[in-house]
Amino acid sequence: MIRYIDEALQLWAAELHPPHGVERIGPGAGGCSLAALIDSRGVLIRSTRGSRVLLEQAAEIELLVNRHLPDKERQVVIEHYTNYDSRDAQKWAACGCSRPQYYRRLQQAHESLERELINRKRAA
């Protein structure tokens, strides 16, 4: 796995796909930005976990995962990073593949996301 892509995906999942029963905090949490400012007494909290990935970057990762990854790679990424309750063997079974194939797809997804991020930076 590509370490910084792994970290970005972990933070993406924590920010935009938290475990059940945990509310998202801050802009994009389904609430009003003004309400978030009032709740935090005028301090805009961009992340509750001290992440290096800001909410805008998490939204960019969301876009890349949903629009640029092939279906099988997207399924593995979503299963790997947002399924907080299943064991590894259950994740492999949910994706319909063996352990080695699961991790090959995850590696391919990391490489695809890295390429897309590089291309976006070049275009900017």
Give an account of the 3D structure.
The structure is a single chain. The protein is mainly alpha-helical. It has one domain. It has helices at residues 3-16, 33-39, 55-68, 71-82, 88-95, 99-123. Helix 1 (3-16) packs across helix 3. The protein is globular, with a radius of gyration of 16 Å. Residues 24-31 and 47-53 have low confidence and may be disordered.
Order of helices and strands: HHHHHH
Task: Give a short account of the largest sheet.
Answer: none
Total count of strands: 0
Helix content: 55-70%
Q: Which parts are unreliable, with pLDDT below 50 for 5 consecutive residues or more?
A: 24-31, 47-53
Number of helices: 6
- How many separate structural domains? 1
How far is the N terminus from the C terminus? Answer: 26 Å
Query: What is the oligomer described by this structure?
Result: single chain
Structural class category:
mainly alpha
As a percent range, the share of strand residues is: under 5%
- What's the overall average pLDDT, rounded? 81
Shape: globular
Layout: helices, strands, pairs:
Blueprint: H1 3-16, H2 33-39, H3 55-68, H4 71-82, H5 88-95, H6 99-123
Helix pairs in contact: 1-3, 1-4, 3-6, 4-5, 4-6
Summarize this, please?
With 124 residues, this protein is mainly α.
Give the tags.
single chain; 6 helices; 124 residues; globular
